[in-house]
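About this split. The held-out portion is used to measure sequence recovery: a designer receives only the structure tokens and must propose an amino acid at every position. Recovery is the fraction of positions where the proposal matches the reference. Here is one held-out target exactly as it appears in the evaluation file.
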């Protein structure tokens, strides 16, 4: 029995593959602070949101986390839990922002929002479940600053990639 696929299925698969490739490449980068990565796969999620809507962005983001964790060997580990929590927090913030502000937020603004939500979601899980120590709170300003800087960088990339014309329907 063959499964029929739609144009949207192919689009999601292509965008997810791109985000997964970026995710795997970022996993290989050294980090001065554990868990802090540039988050360039977020560019793909934000572009998917802007071009094709929240549903496509959710699929791309969740497939990236799942397949990316399988490829780098972190599936069902604390790293996977943090990545999934960050993605869910980011998606929730993006969904809320687009519901409230509609198309008035730029790619740059959405990337910064997503990066900050991602980091905050990860931090809350790390603090609650993994390292419930008050000293961890001292890292929060550093982590949020890194998220802001990386959000600005990914937002700049997304802004350069976002076309001025509306896309064709998936």
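Reference sequence for scoring:
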């Amino acid at each position: 029995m063959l499964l029929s696929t739609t144009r949207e299925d192919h689009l999601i698969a292509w965008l997810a593959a791109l985000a997964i490739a970026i995710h795997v490449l970022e996993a290989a980068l050294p980090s001065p602070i554990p868990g802090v990565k540039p988050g360039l796969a977020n560019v793909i999620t934000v572009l998917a949101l802007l071009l094709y809507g929240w549903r496509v962005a959710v699929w791309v983001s969740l497939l990236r986390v799942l397949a990316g964790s399988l490829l780098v060997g972190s599936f069902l580990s604390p790293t996977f839990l943090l990545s999934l929590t960050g993605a869910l927090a980011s998606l929730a913030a993006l969904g809320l922002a687009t519901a409230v502000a509609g198309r008035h937020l730029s790619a740059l603004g959405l990337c910064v929002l997503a990066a900050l939500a991602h980091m905050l979601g990860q931090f809350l899980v790390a603090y609650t479940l993994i390292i419930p120590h008050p000293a961890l709170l001292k890292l929060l300003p550093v982590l949020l600053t890194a998220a802001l800087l990386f959000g600005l960088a990914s937002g700049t990339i997304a802004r350069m990639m976002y076309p001025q014309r509306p896309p064709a329907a998936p």
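Annotator remark: Residues 78-101 form the longest helix (24 residues).
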